[in-house]
Design brief:
Blueprint (H helix, E strand, L loop, with lengths): L5 E2 L1 E7 L9 E3 L5 E5 L15 E5 L2 E4 L3 H8 L1 H8 L3 E8 L5 H5 L11 H15 L3 E13 L2 E4 L15 E5 L2 E5 L4 E3 L2 H14 L2 E2 L7 E2 L2 E14 L2 E13 L6 H4 L4 H24 L12 H5 L8 E10 L5 H16 L1 E2 L5 E3 L1 H25 L12 H16 L10 H29 E5 L3 H9 L16 E2 L11 H4 L3 E2 L11 H7 L5 E5 L3 H17 L7 H7 L5 H10 L3 H52 L2 E2 L5 E2 L2 H58 L2 H7 L12 H8 L2 H12 L7 H26 L8 H13 L1
Parallel strand pairs: 2-6, 2-17, 7-16, 7-17
Antiparallel strand pairs: 1-18, 3-4, 4-5, 8-9, 8-12, 8-15, 10-11, 13-14, 15-16, 16-19, 20-23, 21-22, 24-25
The structure holds adenosine-5'-triphosphate.
The site of adenosine-5'-triphosphate has 18 residues, from α3 and β14.
Length: 800
């Protein structure tokens, strides 16, 4: 979490007094500075170097300030930040009787004079009442450090009056905590205040000359706040604590007039406060690496409350009388040093995995209930959604084997888990078979590394490796895949996996299929032996076939199991039988195309001849014209040129040829277009003929008959092997299901959906508010419900 650097805030609070030393203590107009002036001591001579003026700048001076304003200035922001996850510490420091306890706890007799602790408690519970999206729990502890001893002010006392739990300060990655200190859950302000008052009565108090009820110990009242809220399915947890510390009074021993026990206490107090001061000085020095927190119990406990990741505020309580000016100076120095300390408050968020699991479990149970409701509405009462038991898995496995052997035609599918298990079992079977094939291949062939060129070329020389593909040469053996166990009556003809190849037949196991079973692309397989292997395989297979129950072999099966005819032979057969019609059309189109092509070449030839004739006549005409012009031209009475008969005939001939050329050219263009179209038809027919033949060839010779039968309509292979009504159930999405349900359930059809939805929402709202009110009634304080109650109530909202 991103941390922003802050300084510790320090305030000074002046205890009201009738003898306020106006000449000694002066407040600045900004209400943040305070000046102290001490007159030179005349008794110490004319030359007196002792400093007489001090100026202190703080975050605020609280002079004649009410408890309420003090809280607003000092604590309110810190408490509201604690409610969003920042730790906070407020500490009152000052001489005995300066008003620390008054500031921190206040006068318990009067509400108006209550101090920071009761006000903080009130602010926390007010915020809880207002919060809606998180569940906040509050706990309280009250620790006292008296003469370097840890005391639990809220512990259950033994008959001797002492707590039976040994306490110790423990450092852990999350911070410092006091082992053995009791932490009490409180459900409201009253509960928390009860604990405060109970703790107050247990504090060690002594009377001395400066304060009738002087607290002789350091007291730390801690409010632990935990808010849980959901972000999607995560439950997040924000933990924070507010330490409210009332330090024991710092006093000069000579002044208190103490002796005996009280004197000893004062010595302890002064020692721990002096350690606290050293810590403050060390914390304020950025170069200091080691901070001696463990020097005293007080500093150790405050390790993560001082200048750590928390908001820290100090209130320096001072007395306004001139008599106490030395103590006042000391307190103001302490406060100023505190201000130098830098803190980096961070929000303490954790992910509550336990809470998340609980929330998800609740969600699952709700969804199960909803699913059960849907199932009962669509009469699917037998469906369960629990994980499959071992017995159920075994049952599915046995069903699959029966199905593959053809003993049953369908596998009953009840729910999605079962579908998954069926697929899993199929996968296992396929994997097992692949392993078996590989094992068999390995037993017959040797693997050569693809980069081992010497061995490959040696193998090629003896002719046992295919030069192009580096694969097994197939003249030796043929490998037939056995994808599914055959039916008992088919076993005899199909169980052999290796057998001698017959002349003119091709392998049914393609290079790709084979490669799928090869261990690596960088390896080459060659047969260990050639003829020996063939012989051995034949023997093995015969032995295997003999072991199977012998059943008559059907005609179709024998067709499938024997070697298929070559494609050329099969194609001739196909053209005569199934493909005869398309073959006829193909032939017709082809002959039309041929005729058009012939005609086209004839026309083209004729055009060329015409062109030549035109050229010749043009030349003859030119010669005629030249001859005429040499002899002198004759014109008639109208001035028209007179030509002889030969020239006239040539002109007529040229005209006829040009006409013929135009016609032939047009015919050639038409023929070209026709040829293009015919060619397209012929190509189409050819493709159709080939694709039809491929299908026919595969169905007739490559696919086992029982698979062909199963594929026919009425056969037992259907999508997903799931009964069709269940397929629908599985494939429907939420929307489809909802719409179908509407049609079944809603008498007035889908138009009434909005009406029913609105009614349902209203019903749920009422249930929710009824729950809320009953929870409020159950609770002793009206208008307040517990976190658990809210949780329960909100679960109704989840349904909505
Ligand atoms: N701001 C104030 N307004 C009114 N009365 C005050 C104020 N500050 C202190 N007093 C009163 O002064 C007396 C001494 O105050 P308080 O007990 O709070 O001092 P203290 O600093 O806690 O002393 P000690 O360290 O000895 O416990 C109390 O009677 C208290 O009511």
């Amino acid at each position: 979490m991103h941390a922003v650097e802050k300084k510790v805030r320090a305030f000074v609070r002046v205890k009201p007094t009738a003898q306020f030393a106006q000449d000694v203590i002066k407040f600045g107009p900004d209400n943040k500075s305070i000046d102290i002036y001490i007159k030179k001591d005349a008794k110490k001579g004319v030359v007196n170097n002792k400093q007489t003026d001090w100026s202190f700048k703080l975050d605020g001076v609280l002079h004649n300030t009410s408890q309420e304003l003090t809280y607003e200035t000092v604590a309110k922001k810190l408490v509201s930040e604690a409610l969003v996850g920042y730790n906070g510490t407020i500490m009152c420091y000052g001489q005995t009787g300066a008003g620390k306890t008054y500031t921190m706890t206040g006068a318990t007799a009067e509400y108006k004079h209550r101090g920071i602790i009761p006000r903080a408690v009130q602010q926390v519970f007010k915020a809880i009442t207002r919060s809606v999206d998180s569940f906040i729990t509050v706990r309280i502890s009250y620790l006292e450090i008296y003469n370097e001893t840890l005391c639990d002010l809220l512990s259950t006392m033994t008959s001797s009056g002492a707590s039976d739990v040994q306490m110790a300060i423990v450092d852990c990655p999350q911070g410092v905590y006091v082992k053995g200190l009791s932490i009490h859950s409180v459900s409201d302000e009253e509960d928390a205040l009860n604990l405060l008052f109970e703790g107050e009565t247990n504090r060690v108090i002594a009377e001395h000359t400066l304060n009738k009820n002087s607290s002789r110990s350091h007291c730390i009242f801690t409010i632990y706040i935990q808010s849980r809220f959901r972000v999607l399915s995560d439950v997040r947890c924000i933990n924070s604590k507010i330490n409210l510390i009332d330090l024991a009074g710092s006093e000069r021993l000579s002044k208190t007039g103490s002796e005996g026990r009280v004197l000893k206490e004062a010595a302890y107090i002064n020692k721990s406060l002096s350690f606290l001061e050293q810590i403050i000085i060390a914390l304020a020095d950025p170069k200091r690496e080691h901070i001696p927190f463990r020097q005293s119990k007080l500093t150790h406990v405050l390790k993560d409350s001082l200048g750590g990741k928390c908001n820290t505020v100090l209130v320096a309580n001072i007395c306004g009388e001139a008599l106490h000016v030395e103590e006042t100076l000391s307190s103001l120095r302490f406060a100023t040093r505190m201000k130098w300390i830098t803190t980096e408050p961070v929000i303490n968020v954790t992910y509550d995995s336990e809470g998340t699991v609980k929330a998800l479990e609740k969600e699952i149970s709700l969804l199960k209930q909803e699913l059960a409701m849907h199932d009962s509405l669509v009469n699917r009462s037998l469906v369960t959604y629990d994980p499959l038991t071992d017995v159920q898995v075994a049952e599915i496995k046995s069903q699959i084997h029966k199905y593959l052997q053809g003993d049953i035609d369908e596998i009953d599918i009840m729910n999605f888990r079962q579908v998954q298990e069926v697929f899993r079992q199929f996968k296992l079977i396929v994997r097992k078979q692949a392993d078996e094939v590989e094992t068999r291949l390995r037993s017959k062939y040797v693997l050569i590394d693809r980069n081992d060129f010497a061995t490959i070329s040696a193998a090629q020389k003896v002719g046992i490796v295919d030069v192009d593909h580096h694969l097994l040469k197939r003249q030796d053996v043929d490998i037939i895949p056995t994808p599914v166990p055959p039916k008992p009556d088919e076993k005899k003809s199909r169980t052999s996996s290796l057998r001698p190849k017959k002349e003119g037949t091709k392998s049914l196991f393609s290079g790709r299929d084979l490669a799928a079973h090869l261990p690596s692309k960088s390896q080459v397989i060659i047969p260990t032996k050639s003829l020996d292997v063939k012989e051995k395989a034949r023997n093995e297979d015969t032995a295997h076939i003999d072991a199977q129950p012998s059943k008559p072999v059907s005609k179709e099966n024998s067709q499938w199991s024997s070697s298929p005819p070559s494609r050329a032979v099969a194609f001739e057969q196909f053209k005569k039988e199934c493909g005869s019609e398309i073959n006829r059309i193909f032939k017709e189109n082809k002959s039309i195309l041929l005729a058009r092509r012939k005609r086209s070449s004839t026309v083209a030839r004729r055009i060329n001849i015409i062109k030549q004739e035109i050229e010749d006549i043009k030349k003859a005409l030119e010669a005629q014209r030249q001859e005429r012009s040499q002899q002198g031209e004759y014109v008639d009475e109208k001035g028209r040129l007179i030509i002889d008969e030969k020239e006239f005939l040539l002109i007529m001939k040229l005209k006829d040829l040009k006409e013929e050329y135009r016609c032939s050219y047009a015919e050639l263009q038409d023929l070209k277009a026709e040829i293009q179209y015919c060619q397209h038809l012929v190509d189409q027919c050819r493709n159709k003929l080939i694709s039809e033949f491929e299908i026919w060839y595969s169905e007739s010779f490559l696919i086992p008959t029982y698979v062909q039968n199963a594929l026919k309509s009425g056969g037992n292979i259907r999508p997903g092997m799931i009964p069709i009504n269940r397929v629908m159930c599985l494939e429907e999405d939420e929307q489809d299901r909802f719409e179908r349900m509407q049609e079944v359930m809603l008498p007035a059809g889908p138009d009434s959906v909005s009406f029913y939805k609105a009614k349902m929402k209203t019903d749920q709202k009422h249930t929710y508010s009824r729950t809320m009110s009953s929870l409020k009634l159950m609770h002793k304080k009206p208008g307040h419900i517990t976190a658990a109650g809210k949780d329960k109530a909100l679960s109704f909202l989840h349904v909505t």
